[in-house]
Amino acid sequence: MSSTETITVTRRNRNLGIAWTNETEQQRMPNGGSFLAVRDPGVTPDVVGTIRDINAEYDRARRIHSGGTAWRVRFFVDGRPVDADDMREAMAALLQPGIRERGQRGRTPRFFADDAVVRVQK
C-alpha cells in the first residue's frame, strides 16, 4: 500500500500556482494513425499567488473555454503539482462564505473552512 503525500492549504498561502493550456499537438498511434490532443500544461505555474489569485485565473480560463474548447489545467503548491479535483474542492471550501447553523449563537464564520488538504501528484 502506497502512502499519499498531502499538503494543507489556507487562505494565507501565497505559494499557490496554476498553469493551463489549449495548445494541441499531433500524437502518433502504434498502427500509424494520428490524432490531435491538448498538450500538458507544463511543470511550472503561469500564475503564482493566493487562493483568490488562483481562483480568478481559473475562472478566467473557464470563461475563455466556455464554448466547448478543449483545455487542460494543473494546480501547484510550493511549485509541486497537486491533484486538480482536490484543489477545486479546496478553492470552493476556502472561498465560500460561512453560514450560521440553526440555533448557533455568536458571529457567523467569515468563511466555510479555514484550511483544506490536497494530494501531491506523483
Task: Describe this protein with a few key phrases.
21% helix, 4-stranded antiparallel beta sheet, 8 strands, alpha+beta, elongated
* Rg over CA atoms: 18 Å
**Beta-strand proportion:** 25-35%
**Element order: H for helix, E for strand:** EEEEEHEEHE
Instruction: Report the structural category.
Output: alpha+beta
Major sheet description: 4 strands, antiparallel
The number of helical elements comes to 2
Number of domains: 1
Which geometry do the CA atoms define?
elongated
- What is the mean predicted local confidence, pLDDT? 87
How far is the N terminus from the C terminus? 15 Å
Beta-strand segment tally = 8
- What multimeric state do the chains show? single chain
Classify the helix fraction into a percent range. Answer: 10-25%
What is the spatial order of strands in the main beta sheet? 5-2-6-7
The low-confidence runs, each spanning 5 or more residues with pLDDT under 50, are none
